[in-house]
User: Fold this.
Amino acid sequence: MNHTEKIQHSLKKRHAREKRFRLYGLLSVSISILFLLSLLGDIGFKGMPAFWQTKVKLDIHLDPERLGLGPNPDQDDLFQANYQRLIADTLTRMFPDAKTRQQRRALKNLVSKSAAYELRDAVIANPQLLGQTRPFWFLAKDDVDVYMKGRIDRNLPESQRRIKDYQLAWIDTLKSQGRLKQGFNTTFFTNSDSREPEQAGIRGAFTGSMLTMLVTLSLAFPIGVLAALYLEEFAPQNNRWVDLIEININNLAAVPSIVFGLLGLAVFIGFFGVPRSAPLAGGLVLTLMTLPTIIITSRAAIKAVPNSIREAALALGASKTQVAFGHVLPLSLPGILTGTIIGMAQALGETAPLLLIGMVAFVADVPHSIFDPSTALPVQIYLWADSPERAFVERTSAAIIVLLLFLMAMNALAVFMRKKFENKW
Amino acid sequence: MELGQHISQRYNQELENIRNQVLKMGGLVEQQSINAVKALLNHDPELAREVASRDDEVNSMEVAIDEECTRVIAKRQPAASDLRLVVAVIKTITDLERIGDEAQKIALYAQKLSLRDTVNDMHSELAHLSRRVLDTLRDSLHAFARLDANQAVETLGQDKHIDKEFENLSRLLITHMMEDPRRIKSALRVNWCARSLERIGDHAQNLCEYVIYLVKGKDVRHKSLEHIRAKHFPMDDEETPFVTPKLAD
Amino acid sequence: MTLDKTALVVDNNNNSTEVNLTGSASDTADMLDMTIGETVGKALLEDAKLNVRHANVFYGDKQAIHDISLDIGKNEVLAMIGPSGCGKSTFLRCLNRMNDTIPICRVEGSFLLDGEDIYDRRQDPVLLRSRVGMVFQKPNPFPKSIYDNVAYGVRLHGLAKNRAELDEIVEKSLRRAGLFNEVKDDLHKPGTGLSGGQQQRLCIARTIAIDPEVILMDEPTSALDPIATALIEELITELSEKYTIAIVTHSMQQAARVSNRTAYFHMGKLVEVNDTDSVFTTPQHPLTENYITGRFG
Assistant:
């Protein structure tokens, strides 16, 4: 056997091994894609209906008498009037077959409790409506909504359904009269959290998350970048203290996030008296969590700047600071930005530390500043996932979809920024 | 001075090859000179013819070495001692070729002179001169072969003896010519031979100068012997490898 | 009569000569075993631009440069040659304190630029580097436009009063670096888009834009093709009319072509420094000879 033959002999084996390895790789990639797709599919399937909401049309006679209003009601009177009664009247009139107490309550629960508020706001906005009969579209109660989306099987025995037979009959009647329609669920984006699923929205949590991110970004980015710049460009090398700091930063990146929550609770809220549940507290805690990531990625980006550039600037008589800010920072900026955005994305998805500093509270208001109590998107998801109502399941998934889209947007921004700054030259 | 030890083995071989070819050419030229003188003194037209015919060999060797030197310069860009070697070789082969020409001339005269037995009475003087010249040639080739600057400068001193011998011989020939005008023609021929021998001596001097240039890096052409000795061979001709000037602050 | 004896022993079949190499050859062999000793040749000059005396440079515990004394004359091109790791680049970088950026580097000895101590406590490295410019091995233009590259140092030191003056300096520097005609229409294109040779000339233009007194060049053509190299070498010769230039090079031919004086470094010591002509024809130290002729050191 000469060399060529020997090599040919072994070649078969080698090719087989190569093929096998490629197959394994393909297999593992397919499995990951399968997992991802099933996750996204599940969330999408569950969450997409939440973006549609069933509405009910009721012709309301705005009778000032039933509202208990005098001839010339002022703003306060209008605000405090009992609009709920009008809705109940209307429904009773439409479905007189509701006899028992239980059935009457069920009848009232065809529309959301928010219907009364909507009516009130309409009257206050336009007092001329009093005395007239007008059609209004109200949010349907969550059970009606869920049924309309086909998530309740009417063939099940009545005892196993949330909706009783007489309710089904009413819904069918409303449907046949064209009084039910499904529209885009704006409430989900404009409302804050609520006990009533059909009224619950993510605006409060979203705003809370944004404010928290703002605090985190405005603290973590400058501190992280300056720390990285100092450690790479100015700190004495082979110094025990610098080494110690380096090791600590690396360790900090590996600390479980809940520990940061405990720290935040003890230091920021306990010691410095930062308001509980506020985005400020959340932002501070997430800053602690993000800093190591930003410092480590920034240092890597700064290290990647070729030394020849530093030398060139130094040789022309630039000072160390001029080199660091005039050359090193701009050249490492794409990498730093990428790292920062990845760190921010991590922080955005973080739940555990926020639970500890009280951002888990039920907050029905949209926060207006970083000092207002608030929740965050992931915490909202956690809260909703805990709720028993069927309608909250789809809202949980919808919130996850929003969070994922937000994260994707951030990552896309990171890619865009890197490309933009790299393409500069 | 070492030719070897280059990082490039082939460069070593090329330089070695050039040197060997020069030594070979030197050997050939020396042999030619010896044979020419032999033919002249022993009236051997056969040997003289052989010498005349072998001159082409010398010429072609010169061309071959010249080409080889050009190649080395183009390919290797020799520096320092290597450069001096190549330059010295280029010059040396020119002088060797001239020596070969002179030997050829002597051989031609030897052929003509041998027809008439007229130079017998000048034989010893001619023999004396040729011995000096051939000794000088041998010494200078030795100096080149061993790259021995000391021997080279030693050999340079021989020139004045040769010049003296040549002068004596010329005077003797003139005397002969005045005594017997019929012998003017052959005497002139003998004079030409002596002249050629003297030229060979001069070329041998040149070879020595090249050796000194090659070893010492100093061009000693057109300088008096005393000057050369004083400047480049101080301390009683013992060689100093290089000067180490004191570094003043 | 010794007519029958030929003087030479020549063996045609064998390349090695049987003639014993005597004389200076044995001296050379002896020299190789000797310590390098004191610098050979003409290390000190009168009225020099840079005077270096007893320079010792350490990297941590390792001594990179051993007691080097060397002068660089006004408008002189000094070439520094030697094998890798011989300390020539280290020495060059001492002349504008680029070694300051290496924390473990320690420099001893006196370095005088026009009689001023480079390493004096009061000497500002920023000012020093504006007087002693440097061109590096790899062309390292900033990722900015050609114009900004050249204008960088000028702006940094505030050497131009207004835009027009800056334009003039940029053009003049590019012209002097022999680059202006090639890039005059592309002044606002990135400097990194130029060819290697053009980039290096851009770096030279950038260096001469702040009008230094001395230009240090650390293997400026080692990354360039022969034509770009020839252009740079031509440029060095032209620049030497105005500037003092110290160039480190691995190409001995380059040192021979561009320099007035050549210094040979070996193992952190200055072995020999002399006029380039004499170094390349008749080096005095056997180590120099070995290096120049490509022999084992």
Summary: The beta strands of chain A are 52-61, 133-139, 180-184. Chains A and B do not touch (no CB pair under 8 Å).
